[in-house]
C-alpha cells in the first residue's frame, strides 16, 4: 500500500504572529548598530512595542519596518513566511531605499503619509528617533549640524495623516516628551476666537410619553 499523498493545502501552515515578527526583528538586526553604536534591534523592538494599541498587521510592520531597508530579506521572503500582503505593503512603503527618490527625505514622508497604516508606523519610528537623550547624544557627536531637524519637520506631515488620538497613543508609549509639542502645535493651529465665541442655548428635547406596560391580569 502506497504512502498517502499530502498536498500543500492539507498541511496547516504556521501563522505569522506579532511575536514571530518580534523574534524575527531581533534576529535580523542582531549584529547591527545605530549611529550612536547602540544595538539597532532595540530601536525596531521599541517601534513595534509602541504600536501595541493597533491591529496585528500594523504591529508586525512596526517590528519589521526596517527589515527591507537593512537586511537581505525581501518582500517575497516575508510573504513566504506568512506575513500578510497588507503588512508587507506597509513595510515597503516605509522603506526609504524603495522610494522613487531615496535622497529626498521630505518627499518620502509625503509618500508615507498617503497611507494611514504606514503613517502610524513612521510616527512610532520618528518618535523613537527623537527621544531627548538620543537627540542630545547626536547633537554632541555632530555639533556642526542639527541631526534631528528632519524628524521635527516630518511630524506635521505624518500627524495629519491619522487621527490625533492615534498619535497620542503612540507617543504615550514611546516618547511622552513629544506630547507637549503635539499639544502646542494643535493650539497654534486652532484659530477659534474664544474671547468672542457665543454659545446658543441648546434646544430642549421633546419629552417622550411613557407607555405603561399592559397587565395580563
Describe the structure concisely.
The chain is mainly alpha-helical.
Describe the structure.
The chain is an all-alpha fold and 217 residues long. The chain has twelve helices and no strands. Mean pLDDT is 86; it is low at 201-208.
Strand portion: under 5%
Order of helices and strands: HHHHHHHHHHHH
The low-confidence parts are: 201-208
For the biggest sheet, the summary is:
none
Gap between N and C termini: 76 Å
Rg (C-alpha, Å): 24 Å
DSSP, total strands: 0
**Helix amount, in percent?**
40-55%
Q: Give the overall silhouette.
A: globular
Tally of helical segments: 12
Structural class: mainly alpha
Mean pLDDT: 86
Search tags:
53% helix, mainly alpha, 217 residues
Q: What is the strand and helix layout of this fold?
A:
Elements lengths: L17 H11 L11 H11 L5 H8 L3 H4 L4 H7 L3 H9 L11 H8 L3 H14 L2 H10 L7 H11 L4 H11 L3 H12 L28
